[in-house]
## 1
Amino acid sequence: SRAILAISSRANQDEAAATCEAFNKVNDEMAKMALDDLPQDNMFDDAFDEDDDEAGAKNGKGGDKKQRSWLGKVGKGLYRRTANLASSVGLVDAPMSKEEEDAKNRVFACRSPYASVIGGVAIQDPAEAKVCRSVISLMVRSMGKSLLKGGNVMNTSFPIQCCQPKTILEIGSAMAGYTHIYMPRAVQATDPVERMKNVVSCFIGTMTLTSGNFLKPLNPILGETLQMDYSDGAKLYMEQTCHHPPVSSFYFTGPDNSYTCHGSQTFSVTWGYNKMFITSKGRRNMCFKDGSVISFDYPEDRWGNVFWGEMHHECVGTQTFEDAKNKIRCRITFGNPEGKRGLPTDFFEGCIERYDPANPEKEGTQVLSNVDGSWVGFVDFDKVRYWDVRTCEKMSMCKPRNLLPSDSCFRSDSIALAKKDIQAAQAAKLDLEQVQRAERKLREAVHGKNSLDH
């Protein structure tokens, strides 16, 4: 038995070393491939109208033509066609309306220092961007067509170099960062609309606390847990409750059990042109002692410029907060839904409205309040500021004294990665994955391969 374990451990170490070597081999390839190949200036610049041959003749190297990769040629073609289309419909240099000018001034006056000009949160470390692009290159090579056709990256074993020494559970614990400000107001509110405003503001604001994680968090293993205590007395309990698809469940209780929040979340990843989309499924349910529950889903996350340009994270799509007891909901659409000029994609608009919980697909019957803002800056209801990134401070959190052995902080791969011992971290990660696969086979042998019981 000891000989078998030794052989298995040695095999994992060899695999870890091979993975490290493969990663290092492609580490510079993405930067060489197209970072400088596509134009990075204003997309409406006249230089984009030059043909490749003319551009080659002007590159200052004795008339040698600039050799573009196929990716560069496709990108340049898209830039050129977009510029021509925008010009033809009068979008270039068109004057902004007073409403657009006012919105632009509000958005750029209140903005996270990490915000991207085009929208969302920009990556801050060029070295981190280089690592991310190297990882994507390695993923494309290893998964090939399956990845590009929508294969779920969350079911893929990543090399440890592309990960940060935190699990998805640890990243998720930051979602409670502003509850100490908004949940007491929501608890005390007697007006359901006012309560809705505070819940919406709380969770729009906390999006900035979980954004900016461009290096992939470690996937929690089945049964992994996380406990967290917060400075206001709130407590969080999380557990990885499903392996494939990966599902994280949580229970959050406010100080003195004044409110609770529970739910789950799972991810899937798809790809677009120079983009990566992360779709979160699941619901969060904020429960109050008077029996009302505000239930809400997740917007879609988009990583832009994953191959070239300024890498950034955006939130797009629609998010809905529903209070079925009081028959009101708040619908928010991200990504500058009305296409207002001069605004970044983090601008959002929406409203609180009355609706029929028995027929949620039907249009609302009465608008009760309008909301707009930027998820990297502020939330305004009827032009009254509810959340401002410049004035809200997140509350502190810490680990309780008594932790379960299954807590994320005890993971051997995360501990080694934090110490920058890459080879040990990769070997530990492979060991954990091997244990997961073996345990899954045991569950399938008892309950069947497609049973929900395992």
## 2
Amino acid sequence: SDRLTDLAISADCRWLLTAAMDCTLRVWDIPASQCLQVMHMGTPVTSLTLSGSQDLLATAHVNKRGVFLWSNQLMFGDPAGVATYSDDPIPVHLPRIAAANPSKQQQLGSKQQQRNSVTIALAQAGKQQQK
């Protein structure tokens, strides 16, 4: 709903990924003309790119150093837990760098962030389109 900061098209031209100043990253199913998933990233994405094999997404964010890599949970996680064709934003937290001797609180935070990894619905939508 806010200005776009970047967009990317998948190698097979089935999906369009858009990032906006409202901190959302959206995955669109081009042939179906529908939004597959909305992720609220917590901070605006300034740049994004999807790997050719569609298994990794790289993002850069406002006031953040570095590039964040996200795995496609449909390839590496539990596909049953991924909601598709939804406009309801999924909250996604950026990973934090842990200290050399992390405290128990930092360790718990790191485990929670692993559970909150991005669930991009690309592979599932491709399977639905092939049926």
